[in-house]
């Protein structure tokens, strides 16, 4: 599978003209200089397309090019397809030529399920009407700039991801993302076409309560229940979902307690929310600012950007996630990617609160791990295989604690201490435990405590 990933990048005929950016000897685009801080050759050798690709579960490694630090509670990844047991959200094949959103995922392995996911989706409303916001997964998909051959100049690394997408009306959307353990940071840059109409209006859709699939049968559709609300005063859209695709294997002894599971989120925009709304079951809810039920979405439109000399419009969204509450999701933003200080030093690089600062924080966490291991005499391909394997080994199990507290679905209670989940034990015991013994002695103490406690 690693060979397939390398070939797919080096053999694409259109890649040469995508960006005048640094590349690896294997043809991968590296992040721009401002997203390669701190410097780390080891991190630059991570190729997160290793283990991706293939047309069926038996022909793919089930890995995804997500952003997030080691053991991240929530990782973020571009959506090329709906995920469920046996399908991950991102898969690089010619059958997946579009991106349908940018998803907060906790799916730990291809044969395990998702829990309380949500996605952010950019779009354009051609006449500026809320009825034009697309919620359907297929309809909202945006094509890569340059098609599948160039894949929108996609940049993939553990701490920074970017892709250029056609907006469907002759313009382009540059989507960039990074993420801390509990907070996603996304930046959307809308570039209108030269002949764009005055009414073309950018929007961001948040898809937090989707229809879901149980087990590995796409016909086995369920409808998780959740909530979503909009706060104009704080520029936030927050909510919850009880999606749990693995609920079918819940032990009888904890079934009642686990039925109360919820995942919470709070999305904070850096621009004022002036035109926003809620959608339930593909129906616009006029005048409502909060709702609950199944198949819920929320959106923010930015009509003030219409007709501004066709300039770019940029919006940052920080999305806190939590297993405890909406308030804790909001608190996680303040802890991990806080608002920029009011007396901001314009000369500071990276600027506090910026996407560059978030990416530097996450890259630094990976560099601290990977730079412990120095290899001599290996080819670039060998280094990619090795350092990518280390990253994969340090993604799981993922953190489930927040401020030294964690929610347990075993008893539907919040406890003090650390907790980890998503072990994928059949893979981890044979492959990565030895690596953790070398580099994660202190964290392994928490892991061991968590296993014996449960």
Written account of the structure:
The chain is of the alpha+beta class. The protein has one domain (2-338, 349-453): Beta-galactosidase, Chain A, domain 5 (Distorted Sandwich). The protein is 20% helix and 26% strand. It has helices at residues 2-10, 41-44, 147-150, 255-258, 326-336, 355-370, 380-393, 425-431, 433-439, 441-453, and strands at 75-78, 98-99, 102-105, 118-125, 142-143, 155-156, 161-166, 172-179, 183-191, 201-209, 212-213, 221-222, 226-231, 236-241, 263-269, 275-280, 283-285, 290-293, 296-301, 313-322, 398-399, 401-402, 405-408, 413-416, 420-421. A hairpin with a 4-residue loop joins strand 23 and strand 24. The longest helix is centred in the last third of the chain and has 16 residues, at 355-370. The radius of gyration is 21 Å and the shape is globular.
Can you give me a brief rundown of this structure?
This protein has helices at 2-10, 41-44, 147-150, 255-258, 326-336, 355-370, 380-393, 425-431, 433-439, 441-453; strands at residues 75-78, 98-99, 102-105, 118-125, 142-143, 155-156, 161-166, 172-179, 183-191, 201-209, 212-213, 221-222, 226-231, 236-241, 263-269, 275-280, 283-285, 290-293, 296-301, 313-322, 398-399, 401-402, 405-408, 413-416, 420-421. By secondary structure, it is an alpha+beta fold.
Walk me through the topology.
Layout lengths: L1 H9 L30 H4 L30 E4 L19 E2 L2 E4 L12 E8 L16 E2 L3 H4 L4 E2 L4 E6 L5 E8 L3 E9 L9 E9 L2 E2 L7 E2 L3 E6 L4 E6 L13 H4 L4 E7 L5 E6 L2 E3 L4 E4 L2 E6 L11 E10 L3 H11 L18 H16 L9 H14 L4 E2 L1 E2 L2 E4 L4 E4 L3 E2 L3 H7 L1 H7 L1 H13 L1
